[in-house]
């Protein structure tokens, strides 16, 4: 995407990021489990993100976000790309930014059913660390912990 801009999120971005999150999750079914929270619940959750203690990066094209990444400490909590922008380098740009911001590495969780995301992360140098039966996640779906080990010294 030629006109892609990556920038830190502001509180003014959060409603649009909630909408983006909803669109992505709904479009991803059945690769990702159905969301457990209604639109209002997602909006409340996103509105509660603490931008002083977590990094949220917005990928924008024009005046609308087409993706975002949310990082807390050494965990990539979310990386979502609008379905209409998939395959255009938005996810790669966000992941490259996270790698640059976390040169010592980071981890993430991905559902086993989300093979497209798993392939994406593997192509970008992440490795599988652990598989679970999902008993510890909200959706109760099998998942994989993956990690990027950091920039080689």
State Rg.
Answer: 15 Å
Placed side by side, the strands forming the largest sheet appear as: 1-2-3-4
Proportion of beta-strand residues: 25-35%
The separation of the N and C termini measures: 31 Å
Provide the CATH superfamily.
Gcn5-related N-acetyltransferase (GNAT)
Total DSSP helices: 4
What does the overall shape look like? globular
Low-confidence stretches: none
CATH topology category name: Aminopeptidase
Q: From the 3D coordinates, which CATH architecture would you assign?
A: 3-Layer(aba) Sandwich
Tally of strands: 7
- Largest β-sheet summary: 4 strands, antiparallel
H-E order: EHHEEEHEHEE
CATH class group:
Alpha Beta
Q: How many individual domains? A: 1
Q: Estimate the helix proportion, in percent.
A: 25-40%
């Amino acid at each position: 995407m030629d006109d892609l801009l990556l920038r830190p999120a502001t509180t003014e971005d959060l409603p649009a990021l909630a909408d983006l999150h909803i669109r992505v999750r709904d479009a991803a079914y059945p690769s990702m489990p159905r969301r457990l929270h209604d639109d209002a619940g997602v909006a409340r959750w996103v509105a509660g993100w603490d931008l002083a203690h977590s990094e949220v990066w917005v990928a924008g094209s024009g005046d609308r976000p087409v993706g975002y990444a949310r990082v807390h400490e050494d965990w990539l909590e979310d990386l979502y790309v609008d379905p209409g922008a998939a395959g255009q380098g938005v996810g790669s740009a966000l992941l490259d930014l996270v790698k640059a911001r976390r040169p010592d590495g980071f981890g993430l969780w991905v559902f086993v059913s989300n093979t497209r995301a798993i392939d994406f992360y593997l192509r970008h140098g992440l490795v599988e660390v652990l598989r679970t039966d999902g008993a510890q996640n909200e959706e109760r779906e099998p998942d994989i912990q993956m990690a990027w080990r950091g920039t080689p010294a």
